[in-house]
Structures are given as structure tokens and as C-alpha cells.
UniProtKB/TrEMBL annotation, chain A:
Record's protein name: RNA-binding protein KhpA
Family matches, as InterPro entries: KH_dom-like_a/b, KH_sf_prok-type, KhpA
Gene Ontology molecular function: RNA binding
Source species taxonomy: Bacteria, Bacillati, Saganbacteria
SUPFAM superfamilies on file: Prokaryotic type KH domain (KH-domain type II) (SSF54814)
Gene3D superfamilies: 3.30.300.20
Gene this chain is encoded by: khpA
Transmembrane segments: none
Organism the protein comes from: candidate division WOR-1 bacterium RIFCSPHIGHO2_01_FULL_53_15
Length: 82, 206
């Protein structure tokens, strides 16, 4: 799932080299944290979160066969999840 | 889309060399710098070569198709994306294969998510606003025909009674299909009224 998020996020930003993706496997859920260059965060989130929500929907569909829930969090500069 | 990785004494030199190999203009490629390199002392000692990846830009449709295919592959779905049509500012892609239900999603929601993401990707890479339509297993095509049938029925009723009629709530993309379908009807007009989730398409006599 990390690869999927990484591909999408790196394709959306101007600075793919600054993208960091961290996957944390819990027992019940997997959390994928996305960090970008500060000026790129908006490109991943989109207007009213449209792009971020679409990425979440794609990840959800891709992980439908797994038992675990996968959440995608996009972290901005101040580390506040959006 | 062709791409090549090239080394050179500087980023500029590496890019020049890559362009010569690809045989394309600089404004037709995207350049990713892998390493900036360092100049050698007095031109001989030490130094590190610069390395760049130069990717030839395809048309918006080709780029959109490649992005969609990459996403479907990484989702683990058995599906093939192909370009179904391209006009100015608009790209149509069609997906074939297994797992159609998951690609379509509930009421086409997955197709919409894919359209948003692929649209954003090619807007960044081409710098041009392009509307991306994605269909899977003919779903959107059937949906469009169903909406047009519904609109034709209501238009007929409005024409007969002379009283305008509001349609149930529809997504903007669905309203667009009906507006386009009715725009050439000489006796009927359509408009949208209301805001947000209250917005309704109204079919009225001209």
C-alpha cells in the first residue's frame, strides 16, 4: 500500500525527492503518514481536501481484500494531520 | 513515453547529452535531477558527475493513461487502461479487465476518485487544465444513456404540460450530461438552481 501512496504523492508534487512516506503496521490498522515539502502539501490535499480524500478512497479500495483498515494521513509543516 | 538517465560534468551537460540521444527539444521533456555533481578541482582532481533523468513528455492523454495504469497496477487490480478519446482540454480513458466492480465503486465513486487524482497528476506534469473522464466496463456510457433517457422523458412531459420540473439531486457531472443533452432541444431549456446539496437541475419550456 505504501508503494501506491508513494507513486501518487510523488506524481502530484514539484519536489518528489522531499516526499517521505512512513507506514506503521498496527494489529487492527495500518497508518500511512505522508510528508512533503511545505509548498507541496496543498497539491496533495487539494481544494476542500478533494485530492486527499480521493487518495484515501483509492487506498481503501486497494486494501479491501485485507482485514486491516488503512488510514492515510497527510502531515503539514506543523505536523498537524489534515 | 521515452526516458533516459544520463551523466555529465554538470546538470546542463547531462541534460544536453540526453536531449541529443532522445532527439527532442528541451521544452518537450521533464528533467529530474538525481545528483547535482561537483566540479573537479582544476578540472582533474576529484569531482562527481551529475546525473539526470530526462523524460520525454507524451500527449496529455498518453500521460493520463500511463498514470492510471500505474495506479491500477499498484492497487493490485487486473485491468488495462487505454485512451478512448482526446479532444482539446478533455481526455477519455477506458478500463477493461477483471475487478470492474471495485474500479467503478458505489455509484461510480471510485471512477470519480481516479479522475480527480489522474487529473491532478497530468495538470502538474503538463501545466494545462485537462478534464479527465474514466470509464470501466462501459459503466459511464450506460449511466450517460440512462440519464439521457430520463431527461428525454421529463422534457417530453414539460413540453406537454408547459410546466417546468426540477430533477432530484444529482452530482455536477450528471447535471452536465443532461445540460449538454438538452441544449439542442428547440422547445426545452435547462438550468440549475440552489446551492450545494440543494442544487437542482430544472427542465423548463423555452
Amino acid at each position: 500500500m505504501k508503494e501506491l501512496v508513494e507513486y501518487i504523492v510523488k506524481s502530484l508534487v514539484d519536489k518528489p525527492e522531499a516526499v517521505e512516506i512512513r507506514e506503521t503496521q498496527g494489529e487492527m490498522a495500518t497508518i500511512i503518514e505522508v510528508r512533503t515539502a511545505p509548498e507541496d502539501a496543498g497539491k496533495v490535499i487539494g481544494r476542500e481536501g478533494r485530492i486527499a480524500n480521493s487518495i484515501r478512497a483509492i487506498v481503501k479500495a486497494a486494501s479491501a481484500k485485507q482485514q486491516k483498515r488503512v488510514t492515510v494521513e497527510i502531515l503539514t509543516e506543523d505536523r498537524e494531520a489534515k | 513515453m521515452k526516458s533516459i538517465i544520463m551523466k555529465g560534468k554538470s546538470v546542463d551537460e547531462a541534460v544536453e547529452a540526453a536531449l541529443a540521444v532522445l532527439g527532442v527539444d528541451k521544452n518537450k521533456v521533464n528533467v529530474n535531477v538525481i545528483t547535482e555533481g561537483k566540479p573537479a578541482v582544476m578540472g582533474i582532481i576529484g569531482g562527481e558527475e551529475a546525473e539526470v533523468e530526462v523524460v520525454e513528455q507524451g500527449s496529455a492523454a498518453e500521460e493520463a493513461n500511463q498514470s492510471l495504469q500505474n495506479i491500477l497496477d499498484k492497487m493490485g487490480l487486473l485491468a488495462i487502461a487505454e485512451v478512448a478519446g482526446e479532444v482539446e482540454g478533455e481526455v477519455k480513458l477506458a478500463v477493461k479487465g477483471e475487478d470492474m466492480g471495485r474500479i467503478i465503486g458505489k455509484d461510480g465513486a471510485m471512477l470519480k476518485s481516479l479522475e480527480i487524482v489522474v487529473g491532478a497528476i497530468i495538470r502538474r506534469s503538463t501545466g494545462v487544465m485537462t478534464r479527465v473522464h474514466i470509464d470501466a466496463g462501459g459503466y459511464m456510457d450506460k449511466r450517460e444513456k440512462a440519464l439521457q433517457r430520463l431527461a428525454a422523458e421529463v422534457a417530453e412531459e414539460v413540453e406537454r404540460t408547459g410546466v417546468e420540473k426540477a430533477m432530484p439531486y444529482m452530482e455536477p457531472a450528471d447535471r452536465r450530461i443532461i445540460h449538454l443533452f438538452l441544449q439542442d432541444n428547440p422547445k426545452i431549456k435547462s438550468y440549475s438552481a440552489g446551492e450545494g446539496k440543494e442544487r437542482r437541475l430544472v427542465i423548463a419550456p423555452k
